[in-house]
Amino acid sequence: MxxxxxxSDFIKGNKVYGxxxxxxxxxxxxxxxxxxxxEKDKIEFEEKELKFESLExxxxxxxxxxxxxxxxxxxQVLSKKATIVEEKxxxxxxxxxxxxxxxxxxxxxxxxxxxYIAAVRKDILNPIFQxxxxxGFMILNVYLGAFAIKNIIGISDDFKNQFYAYNYQINVLDxxxxxxxxxxxxxxxxxxxxxxxxxxxxxxFASGIDFFIxxxxxxxxxxxxxKENFLYKQLFIKSGWAILIIMFLVLLINYMFYMRYDSKxxxxxxxxxQNIGLISRLDTLRKEITxxxxxxxxxxxxxxxxxxxxxxxxxxxxPKSIVLTDLNVxxxxxxMKANEAIYFNIRELNLKGTYLRSTVLNQWIVExxxxxxxxxxxxxxxxxEKITDPGEFELMLSIK
Length: 400
What we know:
This protein is of the alpha+beta class. It folds into two domains: 214 residues, 2-Layer Sandwich (Nucleotidyltransferase, domain 5), CATH 3.30.420; 93 residues, Gyrase A, domain 2, CATH 3.30.1360.100. The protein contains ten helices and 17 strands. Strands 3-2-1-4-8 form a five-stranded mixed beta sheet. A four-stranded antiparallel beta sheet has the order 14-15-17-16, with helices on one face. It has a three-stranded antiparallel beta sheet with strand order 5-7-6. Strand 1 and strand 2 form a beta hairpin.
């Protein structure tokens, strides 16, 4: 029962980093990662195809509160496909005379008679474990070479026959994989529902999928205690939060009841004084509303206005040979006088400027009249003393 609770999504969480640490052929170490999360039984990418050239860059970018499942691959990782022999230790398939205490080994059972075996020296992998642990990361599982691929065989049509996982070629027949290491990495794109992922990050993705699989074969026992510590830590944190939330809800409910009855008491105490001037205040407010509506209506503020649009369209249409010197939006209906209301004509725009050729001016007037919001364009004045001098014009544009 406790094990089922510990492995539930609520306790262990719904996010994980899949990390592929690969010692490249040129001697560099590349860290490739994806961030996966589970929502409503569907695994999605929160971040994909993250690539770093150092452990420091990875730890600086990634959230240390999210656990990770990693794959380690290099020339030092030995692997082979072997026929299963009872009572034969895994390391004997690769190095018959080697000490099992010096190596981490891992197996991938293909069928009743065959399996893949991988091994790496502990003094190669332990510093990586320690570096990640020192940075605050929690490692839940580790794969060697391309062993994480077994987690994704058959999950998509692209992973049912032949596909590439960076520097590995995977051939699948009847859900049994034939893994072949290739000299030159392949860069292909594969479909995962609505998402796509390149072959360079397939192993990182397959490593992360391990987090959401209830049962996995893990033969690197150094991580057993780490995973158990992580799950109990998550249980402690989640149960602690649950207790705090319950206590908070109890206090909140008590506070709400107190506030409700206290508010009711204050409401009854103030009701009498509030009702005395209520009717008088209501009449005053109605008069203020009527006055303000009348004022705003008279000034044209309640009607729709798109003056900036009109001004923009007029300015954009001005020909190069015409200089627009004045654009008066909503001109005064009459000259302002002291102690008299000010009225604006909200259906007119006045335009003033100079022109060189009357034909260009006429064409512009025709263009202004063609706008669907223009009612009429009237020439108020037109003056040109000499044909060689610029003429002056004043137009009145009426808006529908």
